[in-house]
Design goal:
This protein is of the alpha/beta class. It has two domains: 229 residues, Type I PLP-dependent aspartate aminotransferase-like (Major domain) (Aspartate Aminotransferase, domain 2, 3-Layer(aba) Sandwich); 124 residues, Aspartate Aminotransferase, domain 1, CATH 3.90.1150.10. The protein has 13 helices and 13 strands. It has a seven-stranded mixed sheet, with helices on both faces. Helix 2 packs parallel to helix 8 and helix 3 crosses helix 7. The structure holds pyridoxal-5'-phosphate. The site of pyridoxal-5'-phosphate has 14 residues, from helix 3 and helix 4.
Length: 372
């Protein structure tokens, strides 16, 4: 039997492993020169006119971005109903209220047409997700934010390397947060980054990620507020530096593989395909919808059969209002029906840069056979 094909796998090369060995031998393991170099490389990748600060995760980054944007108790933040739970959890952790807006079935991004109806006197920010690496309509998004005086915290966890008319996500915009979790298009093992055009915000992020510490003019430590402990290590930063160097190549390969999926599924009606996007789509994930209910099959059963045939199938994600914490708060999945449907029917097919074209053919062949 062919080796098991997971739905994703990071590509770490020998050069990167050797570089990590050098960092380990250097004695400088926590945040030091590699963190600075990683931030510099990210800022350069994003065009050179942004401040970038890294931290231990996108979750930590989103939370500090919201705090720096002034979000607190009783404020409302607009969040798509289809995303990873972290997108709403960070709002809830600040005792603010996530207000879920439904998504578009084709793009699986927040349906911006539905945002105005969700805005109240308490709305302070909108937090779109560039779902699976497909950018939201940035003109419409920032137009809405300007019209209603809202801050924008872009949850760009899926979108490092995504572009809008050749401008990288994070090279413009308010507060843009990336994830470098190992499933993402590039990794620093765990890790995240915030891109902002605001130097003062960047200074605050440095304090938020490390105990609220600021050094005074004499170089003495002072604590400005009870900050978090979410500074990245130099080891993680070294992995990130090597991955960033390879990112555009990774994303090119992801786009080719996504193109193969479209070819293989041409004319097949058993799945609902994702939007194709354009060359700016970084294809963090390739997801199709399957009407399991109509087929009298459960999704876990489908995953099990595919796993038995050597193919890993992911689920990203159940809709956020369907999760216990949010159900218990009174949110109803039915209020955002497209996200609810996607949450029930979505499956993530294998897609990562080291995959071969034949792997895509094999996934599609097995999937069609299982659904026959
Ligand atoms: C849309 C979205 N936002 C935020 C996160 C959190 O990222 P991290 O694991 O880096 O905290 C994820 C992680 O999968 C995500 O998919």
């Amino acid at each position: 039997m062919k080796p098991f094909l997971p739905f994703t796998r990071p590509s770490i090369d020998a050069e990167s492993i050797a570089a990590v060995g050098e960092v380990l031998r250097s004695g400088q393991l926590a945040s030091g020169p590699k963190v600075q170099a990683f931030e510099g490389a990210l800022a350069e990748y994003l065009g050179g006119n942004r401040q970038v600060r890294v931290m231990t995760s996108a979750t930590a980054g989103l939370e500090m971005a919201l705090e720096v944007a002034g979000i607190g108790p009783d404020d409302e933040v607009i969040v798509p109903a289809m995303s990873f739970a972290a997108s709403a959890n960070v709002v809830a952790r600040l005792r603010a209220k996530p207000v879920f807006v439904d998504i578009d079935l084709d793009t699986r991004n927040i349906n911006l047409d539905r945002v105005p109806a969700a805005i109240t006197a308490k709305t302070r920010a909108i937090m779109p997700v560039h779902f699976a690496g497909l950018p939201v309509d940035m003109d419409a998004l920032y137009g809405l934010a300007a019209d209603h005086g809202l801050r924008v915290v872009e949850d760009a966890a899926h979108a490092i390397g995504s572009r809008v008319a050749d401008r990288p996500i994070g090279s413009f915009g308010d507060l843009v947060v990336f994830s470098f979790h190992p499933n993402k298009n590039m990794t620093s093992i765990e890790g995240g980054a915030i891109s902002t055009g605001d130097a003062l915000a960047a200074e605050l992020f440095e304090q938020y990620r490390f105990h609220g510490i600021k050094r005074n003019a004499a170089g003495e430590v002072d604590v400005m507020f009870p900050g978090a402990k979410s500074n990245l290590t130099d080891i993680a930063a070294q992995v990130g530096i090597d991955q960033l160097r390879r990112l555009d190549g990774f994303n090119l390969r992801r786009r080719e593989l996504a193109g193969r999926y479209f070819e293989e599924f041409e004319g097949y009606s058993g799945v609902v395909m994702p939007a194709r996007g354009d060359a700016g789509h970084s294809w963090h994930m390739f997801q199709v919808l399957i009407d399991f209910q109509a087929r009298g099959m459960t999704r876990p059963a489908f995953q099990k059969i595919m796993a038995d045939r050597g193919i890993g199938i992911g689920v990203h994600y159940p809709s956020i209002p369907s999760l216990k914490y949010y159900r218990d708060l009174g949110y109803r999945d039915e209020d955002t029906p497209v996200a609810a449907r996607v949450g029930r029917e979505t499956v993530t097919l294998p897609l990562f840069p080291a995959m071969q074209d034949e792997d895509v053919t094999r996934v599609c062949r097995e999937l069609r056979d299982v659904l026959k």
